[in-house]
Amino acid sequence: MKSIHLVCILIILSLCPAGSLAADIGAEVSVGGYSSYIWRGFRLTDEALQIQPSATLSVGGFSANVWAEYDSDTEEWLEVDYTAAYSHSFDAVNVELGYIHYDIRDGLDSDEVYLSAGLDITLSPTLTVYVDVNEGEGAFLVGGISYPLELSACAGLEFGASLSMIFDNGYIATDKNGEEFTGLFNAELTAAASIALGDHFSIDPMVGYTTAVSDDASDAIEMTNSDGDDAFFYGGVALTASF
Questions:
Q1: Which residues have CB under 8 Å from 167's CB, separation 6+?
Q2: Which of 80, 100, 96 is nearest to 88 (CA)?
Q3: How confident is the model over 26-48, as pLDDT tens digits?
Q4: Domains annotated on the chain, with CATH
């Protein structure tokens, strides 16, 4: 199954006109260490070092990414995700269409198609809808804003805030009765820095806070944690190489 997804990604990349390939090929590799694995308001691991490597190849507006999660507590690879996407800008509007395959090592795999739109204006608002086309058969919506701050010629800081909503997506969450639900889900605040180390490398620390914003979301998030919390602080740092 994994080979099928990789072939699909390569086919999508091959659709880019040949004349633009040499000029627009880019690559980025990173490895990060984080206090927890946080995803859409859930803390999916205990508080222990989480290693998250990532590799992205871009050709023009097309990109392919492989991302993984390693839990140092259990000493196991928990997840590998494969993403293929195409992005394009229309004046001040940025649009991205993509596909994500979630390879969950001790759970059900699933797939999402997503569409994201953003504006090149103050606070850079974005709106992204993820539609599950496999296990969940529902959707997840995330709206966000961000504010960049240049600290020096080689360092910057970006503050972000987001609010999400779930639409009958049982793959992501169910209420305390085990039923799918629609409503607000989680809010998240982040602060991320990027410090350049020469032309191709950077070190990228970040901190974040996420909390449930509805009773159903609170019940769903609390059920996945042994401590029964629905709000979490987390943080980490990544080393990134871009070419």
A1: 138, 139, 140, 141, 182
A2: 96
A3: 999 999 999 999 999 999 998 89
A4: 2-242 (2.40.160.40)
